[in-house]
């Protein structure tokens, strides 16, 4: 029991550091936040920080990967096997939009990270770690099952390979959400909601018809 308590405390400290880092990076940018800022925000010591992360760069990557995993896990959880492929995909895309509306900070951070990734001075080891994370996410894409089921049952007729479609959907929908998501969900306008709903319908129509993404 004592060992479990210590593990729970370690997990909580790590989560607190990640949450503090996320808030500070979004507020001040990726280059302006220091370890002492994160520790102060999380109310933890530098010693505790270094028990979990060797550098701010490692914290930054950990935040990005955790947010993406949380998003994909939540969206995947909404799909059920009693639906055909198109229905599964529809449920998941709508859940994705709701998740973005409820967690705008996730979408904003992922966007901030993506914009700055190539310019940021990550070590080769950290870049390799993130590249492996992305490659694993592509090979085991969270939309792949629904798309494969849809191709098999005929509800998805797009001629592109399911994996290519999954990557196309992710890039396209995230791009849309990053443009309409608001810092304060209560300030989202009816127009933003209608635009997003219409965009999802257009995306579903494209994915389920006999077309292929250009390029």
Automatic annotation (TrEMBL):
Sorted alphabetically, the keyword list is: DNA-binding
Q: What's a Gene Ontology MF term here?
A: DNA binding
Q: Pfam families per the record?
A: TetR_N (PF00440)
Mind telling me which SUPFAM superfamilies this protein's record contains?
A: Homeodomain-like (SSF46689), Tetracyclin repressor-like, C-terminal domain (SSF48498)
Annotated region of DNA binding: 34-53
Q: Which domain of life is it from?
A: Bacteria
Q: Which InterPro entries does the protein's record reference?
A: Homeodomain-like_sf, HTH-type_Tx_Regulator, HTH_TetR, Tet_transcr_reg_TetR-rel_C_sf
Stretches assigned to the HTH tetR-type domain: 11-71
PANTHER family from the UniProt entry = ACREF/ENVCD OPERON REPRESSOR-RELATED, ACREF_ENVCD OPERON REPRESSOR-RELATED
Identification of the protein by name: TetR family transcriptional regulator
